[in-house]
Write the structure tokens for this entry.
Amino acid sequence: MIRLHVTAEGQTEQAFIKKVLAPFLAKSGVFADARSVLTSKDKRAAKEYRGGLLYYQKAKNDILTWLKEDGNAECRFTTMFDLYALPSDFPDYQDALRQTDPYKRCKILEDALYKDIGDSRFIPYIQLHEFEALILADPKKLDWEYMEHDDPIKKLLQMVGEQNPELINDGRDTAPSKRIINEIPEYDKVSSGVLVTEKIGLPVLRSKCRHFHEWLIRLEKLGEIT
């Protein structure tokens, strides 16, 4: 049995891992849990605040803490961080920025992250370009949450067309989430985003999102470890 600990950028990614990925991976003998990045602590109130990737060092510290907390050989660790708005203190950030191919950019960043964490049990993953790329794999499923939004959803369908949703650019006003909000201003990432990806289903997500699919292959294969 392999236990997989996922450090997620925020609450949406955390919920997606628990509700969508964990049941799927369990079929391969990989039992996943997730928590959002630790951003601050209130020692007086004994409270932790999690969610949001503003500084790489905070994420690194959180990952290293979890690695120390669970040093068992059957444990593996991974991340789900967005390439969009990745903090500039991320290792090899400037080198990655000079790369025009988003897939190569992710490769540079993931390799640098793996090296910086320095643990063979760690599998880095950066989402291209953000969580909402998964929703744009099939925008029609937004109608499960946003009934009577036929025209906005139709516009999103036309915008995506046959293009790879992972390659929809990461501009301040044109990133996947911004495109969805532009058509559906009431879009709620945490509640609606996860439900919509559930309705789309992993087979479609994997067929449309190459980098996401490659990550899942690595996670599935963890179940073959003896």
Remarks:
- Residues 11-26 form the longest helix (16 residues).
